[in-house]
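Support reply, case 0932

Customer input (verbatim):
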Amino acid sequence: MNPFTTSEIDEIDRLWRQLPIEHMWTGWATAGEEPEQVWIFRTRAHWRRFPLTKTARGYVLADEKGRRMFRSATLEDLLQAVEAIPGLADTVQD
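Our regenerated output:
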C-alpha cells in the first residue's frame, strides 16, 4: 500500500466539510503520520465503515469485508462512491 500524503488527507477533510450535514458520508478517520488507510463512515439505515486505500493508479474504496467496490483516479470521485454504496455489486481489480 501507498501512504496518504498530508495534502491528500487535507483534501479528504475539505471534501467532507463541504458536504451538507445530512449527507450520508458522516465522517472519516485515520491513524498515524503516514496512514496507509483512511476509514470513511457512512450511514443511511445503519452505520458502516469503508476503508479507503491509495494505489499506484489512484484510490480504492472497499466494503466492510475488504472487497474492492470502487476505484477512482481522484478524491473528488470518492463522494460518488460513498453515495453509490450499497448499490455497487461488482468488486474491482487493482
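We compared this against your earlier run and they match. Two observations from our side: Strands lie at 25-29, 37-43, 47-55, 58-62, 68-72. Helices lie at 6-17, 78-84. Please reopen the case if you see a mismatch on your end.
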